[in-house]
Amino acid sequence: MPSNNISRRQVLKAAGVSIALPWFESARLARGAGTVQINSDGPPTRMVLSWYGLGFHTPNLFPEVAGRDYEPSRYLKHFDGLRQDMTVISKLYQDGRRGGHGIKSYAWRGIPEGNYLESLDVFAGRRIGTENRFPNLCIGKGGGGSSQSYMANGVPVAPYTRPSQIFAALFVEETGSARVEAMTRIRQGYSILDNLREQARAQKRQLNAADVQKMDQYLEAIRQSERDLKRQQEWADIPKPKVKSQSPKDISDKAQFVGQAEQLFDMMYLALASDSTRVIGSIMPNYNVVPQGIKSVDGDHHVLTHHGNVEEKKRQLSLIEDEEMKAIATFLRKLKETPEGDGTMLDHTMVCIGSESNDLSRHASEEVPIILAGGPFKHGQFLQKEAFTQNLYLTMLHKLGIEDDSWGNSTGDLSELG
Q1: pTM (two decimals)
Q2: Which of 106, 149, 308, 309 has the most Cβ atoms closer than 10 angstroms to its Cβ?
Q3: Closest CA to 42 of 376, 351, 398
Q4: Which residues, in sequence order, are CB contacts of 145 under 8 Å at separation 6+?
Q5: Which of 193, 218, 238 is the last residue of a domain?
């Protein structure tokens, strides 16, 4: 009978990277024991959210016929070998939606920002991320604002924007003066929060009932910030995972936004593989720029999305989005090619790729195109479902083991996903 103990010297080797085993094969490090103990509950379920701010040309994404017997569309042909691991969803819509790019600010909330609902990644991280260095990892690289992650009081979470910055946060130990500076920042953070709390409490006594509710949300945000600081302080003494790979060289040229996306997906993979986090919220690189390295494309990406049904513009836009789809598919394959427990990392990782528009040529947001991959779903279908995006979010929360009855204005689970 094989032993249930795994040596700490064992490593995961995938995509040219070796990572000291943190969780794989349902493992949890037994501190001080020198071994990793098998957890009978199995590998954790994770969630990755990625938002594309310039939309997708949906005639190339959606198959002609809904159901499981669909013929792959142009874009879905890039996902060869992944059909049974993914579902394409159309007809979902945002509650409180408005036209064009405006819905990005509540992409993972599904309601207008004035209602101050926490974003899905922040909420899930707060509920399931207590065992990880990062309850949720916020990554942003898009034009026109780089965060779609929000605290309960409507304040956006500052994202990591550079791959090297993410790598350092995950794997580079702070030593010497850098560690002293980090601990000083934590102490200063406590002091600032103390001052903010006293000012808020003094002002609260002068507010009407409606404003008192908003102030309570603000005070809760302060308490959450204190909890975050406490976590930072605790994790400062816990060694980070070791990797053999070097920190990535950031691609600064916005014209290489597909390459930037590939780097961010690589960092997401490492963050999940090292169990540094189980929840990631990201907004992917999209800019007003002519892409570099894509043959037969000389148009500005943003301008091409407003194609006005001009064939040449649609042709060039399709070539750009072909490359974006290839980058997404590569990330999914990397997860699928990594064994974990009785399956793969993709089996235990829900990946939701969203976009704010089904047709930016009209600044239309009647529906939100979704690619849902991985996780414990009944995939292999093109699902047409008229429902709030919040119904999908509630379904994903339930798969994470968060058994809340509702999420925002949700009306129930998407039962079609199983």
Answers
A1: 0.82
A2: 149
A3: 376
A4: 104, 105, 156, 283
A5: 238
